[in-house]
Every structure is written in structure tokens, then in C-alpha cells.
Amino acid sequence: MSGGTGAKKSLIRDLAGVFADDAAFTRLAAERGDETAYGVDEFRPDRVVPQDLIFGTSTLNPGKIGEEFFMTRGHIHVNTDRPEIYFCQSGRGVLHMELPNGETRPAEMSPGTVVYVPPFWIHRSVNIGEEPLVTFFCYPADAGQDYDIIARAGGMRTLIVADGAGWREVDNPRYRPRSDAEQGRYLEAAR
Ligand SMILES: [Fe+2]
């Protein structure tokens, strides 16, 4: 991407607590912790106004930790009713989405797939393939990211795990459902 205003990357060791298999993560982080798990090149406008857009490309490297694939930390938007669009450019992935009430919707992506993340959905990318998963993303400039929502619940309600050459969705035994009050706060956190 040309004309970007910034780049960020997350190393494998930055993803502590993201994966269900703690022992497998600790082993991999000891050997390859300094390697990049994923990176973002983005364009952000100088001045944040709600009508503007942030966009860029995300590159998530392939790999597995236990039965799970490399994935992004994931988030809900701080202004929770802001949506997002992902367009898969290369690789194979799942855009894993969850509402605060625990309803999940994993959407498989291959080159050319567009995924719409509606307002109020938590979202993270999972690389289910052997190549880097490259996606273009675009969202309202005032969306913001709350990266702790998933950790506070013990993870997403379901895990995306390897199943032969593919994947399947299984229950996350460490998931702690959000109270009605907490769900309500997320649904109201929109300006
Ligand atoms: Fe987002």
C-alpha cells in the first residue's frame, strides 16, 4: 500500500493469553517470540471526524499454536455501532465474529471475498492456510478499538481449530458469558 500514514506489527510474544493452549504458546514464544505474527499498514486522516475513513492492509502470517491457528488479538470498536469491511486479497482465513451476547459467526475468506462486520460485532482474523492472509480493511475514522473485550471474557465463545485440511468451530471451555448489564453497556457505547 502506498501513501500510508503508519504501520504497526505484533510479534508472536505479544500474543500471550490469546491462545487456549498455554504450554504450546510458551514453547513457541521461547523459540520464535521475536517473529512477526501480523502487521498493519494503514492510512489515517490527520483529523478524526466521524464521516472520514481509516483503511489499510493487514498481513497475518501462517502458523499454529496447539490446535488453533495464528490469529489477531481481536476487538470491538469503542464506538460499538461502527461497522467495518474486510476484503481478502490473498491467503485463506476466517473472520471470526461474536456479539456481546456470545452469538458467533465465523466467515471464511479466500481471495476476492468481502466480509461485512456489522455494528456491535467483536471481530478477529484467523489464518487457516499455509500462506500469509492479506486483507484490505476500512472502517469509520472515529470507531476506535477495545482490545480487552475478548480477554475479559476468557476468549471468544468459540475457538477456530484445525480439522484435517480445514477448520471447525468448537466451544471455548474458558469462556465466561457477559452479564446482561455488561452486554447492555456495549450496546449503549455508541455516540
Ligand atoms: Fe475493527
Q: Care to describe what's here?
A:
The protein has helices spanning 22-32, 149-152, 180-188, and strands at residues 6-11, 36-43, 53-60, 64-65, 68-69, 84-90, 93-98, 104-109, 114-117, 122-127, 133-140, 158-163, 166-171. It has 191 residues and is mainly beta. It has one domain: Jelly Rolls (Sandwich), CATH 2.60.120.10. The strands form four sheets. The protein has a six-stranded antiparallel β-sheet, with no helix packed on it. Strands 8-7-10 form a three-stranded antiparallel β-sheet, with no helix packed on it. A hairpin with a 2-residue loop joins strand 12 and strand 13 (166-171). The protein is globular. The two termini are 31 Å apart. The mean pLDDT is 96. Bound molecules: fe (ii) ion (FE2). Residues 75, 77, 84, 123, 139 line the site of fe (ii) ion.
